[in-house]
Specification:
The chain is an all-alpha fold. It is built from 8 helices and no strands.
């Protein structure tokens, strides 16, 4: 990896860390671009190339991740959690939450209310939202697809008798 790419990655990590620390605040692209020492447009392009999603989408996922934790662990009303994690309206929060998690915040809370007999290390992995929620899973292609199996390779035919 070249030095320029490493420096760019470090700059994007600094900006992402700032977003993680202040996820409840409004997204401020100019301030994040200053942290990364790049222009606003270059920041958005580079962030997407580095992390696979735009800064706005990353921040939404981060907020929903925190909301999932609060919904599962506290008795705070959904409206209060909506504002605690940085959403301006309950409608936007609910729509974004459903789009990422695949169910409403209230349904998520009801489902998580019953404790599961699962080790916490597995729960942490399951609690992390995925940007592919609600999309159909694609099956992995078998390793032999498009190749002849070894058994299908035939030996040369015997020579015909004269």
């Amino acid at each position: 990896m070249s030095r320029a790419v490493e420096e760019s990655n470090r700059a994007m990590l600094r900006a992402r860390d700032a977003m993680d620390r202040a996820y409840a605040q409004p997204l401020d692209i100019p301030a994040l671009a200053r942290i990364a020492h790049v222009s606003e447009a270059h920041f958005i392009r580079t962030f997407r190339a580095t992390f696979g999603e735009t800064p706005h989408r990353y921040l939404q996922r981060r907020r929903v991740e925190r909301a999932m934790y609060l919904l599962a662990r506290t008795g705070e009303p959904v409206t209060e959690i909506c504002h605690l994690v940085g959403f301006g309206s309950l409608g936007t929060f609910s729509r974004t939450f459903h789009g990422i998690v695949g169910e409403s915040p209230s349904a998520y809370r009801r489902r998580k209310a019953a404790p599961a007999d699962v080790p916490s290390c597995f729960t942490k992995a399951w609690m992390r939202p995925s940007s592919t929620a609600g999309k159909p899973a694609t099956a992995a292609k078998p390793a032999t697809e498009g190749k002849k199996p070894a058994a299908a390779v035939s030996a040369p035919a015997p020579a015909a008798a004269p």
